[in-house]
Every structure is written in structure tokens, then in C-alpha cells.
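Reopening this one. Same input as before:
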Amino acid sequence: MNTKLKCLLLDDELPGLTYLKMLCEQIPELEVVKAFNNPDVFLSEIPELDFDLCILDIEMPMISGIEVANLLQGKLIIFATAYKEFALEAFELDAVDYLQKPIKKERLQMAVQKALKRSQLQNPPKKYVQLQADKGKILLYFDKINYIKTASIDSRDKEVVMDDGSVIVLKNISFEKLLEFLPSTDFCRINKHEIIKLSVVQFFSADQITTNWIQKGKNVVLMLGNTYKNDFLSKVKL
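Same output, byte for byte:
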């Protein structure tokens, strides 16, 4: 399961929208689905979009962010505005947070964490996924996984190394598909052939990760590829 929040942005001022989008793209827990600078276009496309959270400006021509929020039943809302006087009205709508412009990244991160916690309370994350293995269907529990690698016999298959040392072979599944199921805050792809659970990381260098998992009397060491390094570093909060 992907624990990222799918997010829409709405601000009628293009420079402000561009800046907000840039900040959001630096926050690992957010996936920006689309950014709008026209409320009418935003409202016309809402029925076709899959999203969890909307970050809204309040002062806009024709329709206010407060009015837009009233139309987004069941969705998480963060308001972003240069004006203090709308705060009470915003919180009466049970908004997650109220940010004053100019928005700082650290303050936006705090708001996103609030939204993530509320989302998780409303939709508790699954602890397992059902997948096809070489011996039939299995329930793969996320907390029992150490890491996942390309199968040695058939690259279309994936070997899941469990915390008890056992190995489960998943049939004909891509890393991209696996990452859709796995909690994104707990797992990270580190090279072309491996996904790792972050809790098994003992220490790391520029191109290697030493795990706390012992195999044949030694700590398992995995390679950290350049393509995946930034994502890994963001997830270990460096």
C-alpha cells in the first residue's frame, strides 16, 4: 500500500502556485496529482481525479477557497492564504491546517504530517497483501519482510527474503507493482534489483548499505544505486 497522500493544488496566482508545487514535490509523503490556477477548471475536473488532499488558496475571483472546500466532501483540506481573518471559518470546516503565505517548507511539512495522521485514522493501513507465489496464493505480511530482490532463475519473478531467513518467490511481478502495495515510508528501492525495508539498515555509505540482518555469520551488504540514492536519503531523513 502506498502511504503517500495524493494531492491537488489550487491557487489563482501562478507564481504562488508554482512555488507551492515546488515545495510539495520536496515532501516524500506527497504526490502532486495536478495543480490548478483556475477554480472553474479545478471544479470541472474534480469528478475524474483521484486524490486525498487539497491545498487551497482562499482569496480567488468568482469563488473562494472556503466555498470550494465545502464542495470537497470527505477530502482533507489545507488552506494557504496571505490573510489571517479566514482562520476561524477554515477551522469550522474541519480543515487539517491553515498556512499563511509566504509558506515555509518546514511549516508545510508539519501540515502534511497532520493530514497523513488523519488519513491513517480514517483509513487504517493494511498490514499485508495477497499475491501469487510459486506454491500458490500467499498473504505477505509487510512487517516480516527484510528485502526483495530479482529472482535468480527468472527476472520476472521476485524473491522476498523474510526476517526468519525463509524466501518466498513471487511470480511475474514488477518492482513498480510491489511498491504500490508496500508502505512507502517503510520500504525503498535501492537499485535495479532490490527493495529494502528501512528498519534493517544498520549504516550506509555513498554506494553501500549494511543491514542488521545476518547471513552465513556476516551482515548482508547491499548496493545503493545512484538513481535511487535521493529517494533513500529522503526516507532516512537526511
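So the earlier flakiness isn't reproducible anymore. For the record, The two ends are 24 Å apart (CA to CA).
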